[in-house]
Amino acid sequence: MQRFRPARRSAGFTLVEILVVVVIMAVLTTVAMLSMGLLGEDRGLETEGDRYADVVAAASEQAGLEGRDYGLWIGPDRYEVLTYVARRQRWETLPEDRLYEAHELPAGVAPQLEIEGRLVLLGRDKPDTPRVPQILLYASGDSSAYRLELIRDGSNATLVVEGHADGTLSVTPPGKTP
């Protein structure tokens, strides 16, 4: 006599389980792509603004500690910290200091500098001409008052850095109003 054996269920997934997994993956992929497209550019600007603020804060502190003036030279695609060397009576780069060396802005980001309500033309540096900083960081802790905007090309994403005469900075991330 043969016993009745129930049919073995195959060890696979049902069509409904596969569809649920596909839908979940599609939703997660869409969310990830939207967040990268919408927020990725802004995060890049915020990171650049944070780096700039850190460099300025460190240069201001070092100017006070050393008792000499520092300055920021801003070009159309980069910025750099300079120091005034009194015995040579000129602005010079800080050798062997990675924090203050020329920093290239990310591709597609352009600076716009305003001092005392006037836009400053940011020209390229010329090899024969010494660079003179547009923004001064005095040993006393004071600085030039200015407004620097980092603008991403092809979008309206703008990060605003305002330097105040007392040496403090205000950073307004993209999407916020100063």
Structural topology:
Blueprint: H1 15-66, E1 70-74, E2 78-85, E3 90-93, E4 103-104, E5 109-115, E6 118-120, E7 135-137, E8 146-152, E9 158-163, E10 169-172
Antiparallel strand pairs: 1-2, 1-7, 2-3, 2-4, 5-6, 5-8, 8-9, 9-10
Describe it.
It contains one helix and ten strands. The protein is of the alpha+beta class and 178 residues long. Strand 8 and strand 9 form a beta hairpin. The radius of gyration is 27 Å and the shape is elongated.
Percent helix: 25-40%
DSSP strand count: 10
The average pLDDT is: 85
What is the straight-line distance between the termini? Answer: 88 Å
Could you name the ranges where pLDDT drops below 50 across 5 or more consecutive residues? none
Number of helical segments with 4 or more residues:
1
Round the Cα radius of gyration to an integer and report it: 27 Å
Series of H and E elements: HEEEEEEEEEE
The CATH C-level class name: Alpha Beta
**Strand portion:** 25-35%
CATH superfamily: minor pseudopilin epsh domain
CATH architectural name? 3-Layer(bab) Sandwich
What is the CATH topology classification name?
minor pseudopilin epsh fold
How many strands, what sense, and barrel or not for the largest sheet? 5 strands, antiparallel
Q: Would you tell me the structural class of the helices and strands?
A: alpha+beta
